[in-house]
Amino acid sequence: MLFLSNIHFIPHVHWDREWLRSTDASRIKLCYFFDRLIDMLENDPQMKYFTFDGQTAALEDYLSIKPFQKERIARLVKARKLFIGPWYVQPDMIIPSGEALLRNLIIGSQYAQSFGHCLQVGWVPDAFGQNKITPYLFKQIGMKGVYAWRGFDYDCLEDSLFLWEGNGNTVLPAIHFALGYGHYRGFPEDYEDVKKDMENFIPKLKERYQDGEILFMLGSDYAFPRRHSSQMINRLQKDGYQCQMTNPEEYLENILKAAKQNHHELKVYKGEARSATLGRIHAGITSTRIDIKNAMRYYETIMAKVVEPMISMTRSLGGHCDQELINYFWKIIFKNQFHDSIYSSSPDSINHTVENRLLNLRHGLNELIWMNFRFLAETVDLSELNDQEDILVLFNTLPYQRQDFAFVSMIVKDKDFVLKRHDGTIVPYQFMNETKETCHDIEYYNGMENFHDSGEVLEGTKFKVQFKIDTSFLPPMGYEILKVCFKEKTSTSLQGDVSVMNHGAQNKYLSVVIEEDGTLTVTNKLTGETYHHLHTLLEKGDDGDEYNYSPCIDDQEIRINDVKPTIELVESSSIEVKYRITFDTTVPLKVVDHHRSQETKPLRIITDVSLKAHSQTVDFETTIENHSCDHIVRVAFDDIYTSKQNCSQDQLGTIIRDNVITNQKGIENGATEYVLPIYAMQRFVKLNHQNAIMSLLSQGPLEYEVENDQRICLTLLRSVGKFGKADLLIRPGRSSGYRMDTPSSQLLDKKVTSQYSLFFGESQQMSDLVRTAEILNTPVQTRYLNDISRQKNKGLKWQYEDIKLDTRVELMAYKKAECGQASVIRILNNRDEDIENVVLYIPADKKCYLGDALEEKQEELENQDGKIYIKSMMSNTFVTVIIE
Hints:
Layout: E1 6-13, H1 23-43, E2 50-52, H2 57-65, H3 70-78, E3 82-83, H4 98-113, E4 122-124, H5 134-140, E5 146-148, E6 161-165, E7 171-176, H6 191-206, E8 213-218, H7 229-238, E9 242-245, H8 248-261, E10 268-270, H9 290-316, H10 323-337, H11 339-343, H12 348-379, E11 389-396, E12 405-412, E13 417-420, E14 430-431, H13 451-459, E15 463-470, E16 478-486, E17 499-501, E18 504-506, E19 510-514, E20 520-524, E21 529-534, E22 536-541, E23 558-559, E24 566-572, E25 576-588, E26 591-592, E27 595-596, E28 600-612, E29 617-626, E30 631-638, E31 645-649, E32 654-658, E33 679-680, E34 684-687, E35 693-698, E36 703-707, E37 711-719, E38 750-761, H14 766-776, E39 781-785, E40 799-801, E41 804-805, E42 810-816, E43 823-829, E44 835-841, E45 848-851, E46 857-861, E47 863-864, E48 867-873, E49 877-883
Parallel strand pairs: 1-2, 1-8, 1-9, 2-3, 4-5, 5-7, 6-10
Antiparallel strand pairs: 6-7, 11-16, 11-39, 12-15, 13-16, 14-15, 16-40, 17-18, 18-19, 19-20, 20-21, 22-23, 22-30, 24-25, 25-28, 26-27, 28-29, 29-38, 30-37, 31-32, 31-34, 33-36, 34-35, 35-38, 36-37, 41-44, 42-43, 43-49, 44-48, 45-46, 45-49, 47-48
Helix pairs in contact: 1-2, 4-10, 9-10, 9-12, 10-12
């Protein structure tokens, strides 16, 4: 029976750039690994293939030490002996944005192709669960199939070969690693032991490979290729085993051919995969080191939605920026989105490395933003300005007009000034009562914070002023320059529709009342419906580790609102009313032997609640001052309707999930963990009903849970102190990772700040919900400039509009092409229905092409006096447009 199957061995390695060790510590082992691998592939004719983990960042790591090895590696790649790509790094599949995942693939596959060949299949061995867009992403960059492991189980897959259906009716053949990606690290040295392994593994694997093409994964984490593996395969062949060494491309081709010959109708799988039956998915990594995750979400958004669009605009006016420079910072983002890095499932050394990269992103992206303001200061006609007039520049990087308020911070010589448009129209503004802290990095020199002027503020010779300005006059995807006219006064003030009520505020859409316990009662004026018990703060123990939340024994959830808070009115104007709610309480210090301690420590939670003019959102900024260990803090919002399912935003649209997971195998039946209904969203979540909308929007935290089919809970803090722990209540048995302390993940004595909002609307306002989330996460960029020429310069205008987009779609990216000087616009239909005749407005003299995700032209699009029509877009899909 053993000889009736064809046995395929894929020699491979899964290389964690940083997990147990930091990148540079791992790089030492990596150098020895590649040296040995190159030698084997060059000198052993029977060592036909090796697959390097479907990613290329580690290859960059190696070549940064040994650049002289590049030609040898290229020869092996061209000869199809060494397979690299298509990822830059192996990311988490749930947390990063759709554009970040796609760009990871684009940059990784192009880097691999520069060596002569990119692996033509997707490779996802170790991500903690799969998202539903995975086959679509891989199809978009030309992949022929996908290999994956975690999240799938035997109940949903009858065979390891199946068809995975993704967005836009994409169907891609997929192979599930039946026993994991590392089930056979390597052949034993003794051949008799090898034959015993075959007798042990083949019966197990035959059940999962119905067409008789059995796959052995010859490798695992950091596993050196076995020098004797080719000899062992030869000996097996001589003993009658039908076996061969193969690679992912060849194996996929063979198994599909066998299925066709056997008239095997492959089953279709659709959706995400979150089962822990066969491998742990660690439902808890979505909130570990939430401070890091909040920052990462900010930088990936700013990169795609602010930095690149600003550069694209100034490029269209004669500016210059190499895509290589942009991709350098994208790669920093990707390195932080490597699955173990973004999970924060690592020793403290890795978390510190991630934090250092966040600092690099802050400095780099600030400078990339600032260079666009500097470009305008050097090119716009400023000859009409006198010595008492400076300029304020505002960039709107969304392809439509906005209806919100921009934050402006300036250091000025006089607090009295008037803002004017180029035609002399006065632009009103509203001073803020409180001054926000802003970055004093030197990267802000002559920008938001003038480095020298900051010192003069301390000396009292200059003043810091902060105000808000209505953005509705800004052009879509454009900029406008305002004069800052000193020695002038005006009676014109910014007018809105917000008014203060007793313990609350109201505008034309919402009425908000803050109750004595700090919860909110909100009336949606569009529907007349009133919501109670909003923003209830909840705290409980966490006996888990960096991988999993796990409840304590006999723990009782603490309702923070039972402690009477202080409530203070801190902003009061017609454009914004803001209250500050402060809770001071105590919670148990730590968890010992699965129980919470009797000793307590202070916990302070400060929430600023804002209602702004013309807004359908109530906005929150919550800071938690943490002094306890081993606990979790969440905020809860009760809908007035119930639903057994929730609807949240994923990378390309929305996804419907059950509030309660009912089809689990169960720990008692051998599952690797009990999967809690803890999910990740991109930007919003709501209950899945067709009534009036109450939706939670987030600018940072992504982990949510729906309780009692009515209450949406958002995780604001998860404090744990172990890399891995054994025998958790929801994950019995061995630890994940290593049983070692990770004190940084306790977030002790830190302030963790999160921003989020509640959107209230009518049932048909889903598109308004999506757009509101986009606007909240894409702020207008403003800079006050006083070190300017006051000359004609190159004569550019004070206002500029670049592109505009159909209101039914959203912008994923507006960037320079990877090669050449064209611009690339990626347009997303995140609706749940197909749409036709999507309009893109561009300059009338530009040539425009429909392209693929790798930016290869497919067909020319007619430019009809500045209008480009895209005939149709399927729901939850994107198109790539190339503009020359």
